[in-house]
Amino acid sequence: MQFSELGLSDEVVGAAADSGYTTPTPIQEQAIPIVLQGRDVLGCAQTGTGKTASFTLPMIDILSSGQAKARMPRSLILCPTRELAAQVADSFERYGKNCSLTKALLIGGVAFGEQNLQLDRGVDVLIATPGRLLDHIERGRILLNDVKILVIDEADRMLDMGFIPDVERIVSLLPRIRQTLFFSATLDRGIRELADGFLINPKSITVAPPSSTAETVEQFLLLTEAWKKRAVLRTLIDREEVGNALIFCNRKRDVGIVHRSLVRHGYDAVVLHGDMPQPARTETLTRFKAGDARLLVASDVAARGLDIAELSHVFNFDVPTHAEDYIHRIGRTGRAGRSGRAFTISTDEDSRYLQAIRSLIKRSIETIDLDIKDQLVRGRTGNARKGARMVQEQEQATGMPTGTPRRRERVPPSVPKNAPTTGLGDHTPAFLLRPARPGVA
Question: What are the pLDDT digits (tens) for 102-121?
């Protein structure tokens, strides 16, 4: 089946073709005709299946007739993260280029003045994160009385991040007669109960089991010790033909640690985390998408919704504590029928998380061995100058420090008069001269 057979206008079909798409994915094939009919949709599709286009394409056609009023958008799309909201906005830009629709993106980290100017002109499509939208509502800058279409995207992530009370408050301000499109990567009992409160007689569409991983992604597992993980990661990057790659960490603190370690060793890596100001986050993604940096180190929240063309690899520096996150992570590669490779670095403490992942995806993950001797003996000196230069360039490009910790002078503790000496003619405690534990930076 072709996009031209789904009931879309020639303008939208042409824009999709210009973006390289002529054949719809299963979620698009099933959802687009239903959306065009004006029915509510409860859609379940894993990441990388073309879910965003399944609602943006028909919405463009529906909204092509009519005109927006100032501060009264005609449609609203709620997204859990800034990056996902920006991705949806990009989709409207591409697919709506042959139509005269206006849009506004309301996300944190951007000045209110700029967003107010967009709202005052009137927008057909409003794309927002819940928190920033409520800020505008409380300031009296926006009214939702004219919303005809509501999209709740990544509802499972909204639930995980605690945004549901905000979403419910926003929905209470919308007209009761509207079309609602509700999308989630999972449809457990909690999600279904949530959907029941927003939808009226919806058409349920599930295109793939939410517990499945794409067949186009090769999956590998490496078992090691915690202190060797960074050496394992660098060895993998050196061994693999990495075009570009996402590196996932569970904790924001570890995102910074892994990024700094890679940069010190001369790798062209950038970082993405929730504490970065929006201009810096935008600059990071621009550099990564343009190929100025091969490696992007991020947490699950920061990387949610990223759509990087032809991403070759995903590296799980940490085993995700939620099995569903494993599917979302490795789904960043192997998209649109392309092949990809995913590597997960694990320690003995991760065994229960690995078991949960295997139970969810119902398949084994090939365990491989890796010789990391070269990385363990390689010191920082060989790449120190290059790493320092890359740190400086990133600080200049993003306008913020990368977070490289400064060295502190170690002040030796006071030593009692009768303390044992090291035999070197001073009173340096012996424990200060013990050899360091073998490890990596």
Answer: 999 999 888 899 899 989 88
Which DSSP state fits 69?
B
Rg of the chain (C-alpha set)? 25
Single out the residue of 178, 217, 180, 183 nearest to residue 202, CA to CA. 180
Verdict on whether the full-model pTM lies above 0.70: no
CA angle (217, 223, 224) in 5-degree steps: 135
CA atoms of 357 and 61, how far apart (whole Å):
40
Is residue 440 a contact partner of residue 375, using CB atoms and an 8 Å limit? Answer: yes
pLDDT tens profile 368-418? 988 776 666 554 434 444 444 555 555 554 455 554 433 333 434 444 445
- 392/388 Cα distance (integer angstroms): 6
DSSP string, 342-389: EEEEE-GGGHHHHHHHHHHHTS--EE-----HHHHH--SHHHHHHHHH
pLDDT in tens, 126-139: 999 999 999 999 99
Give, in degrees to the nearest 5, the angle at Cα 310 between 306 and 316: 60
**Which of 350, 332, 323 is closest to 156 using CA atoms?**
323
> Which regions of 2-56 does DSSP assign to beta strands (E)?
41-44
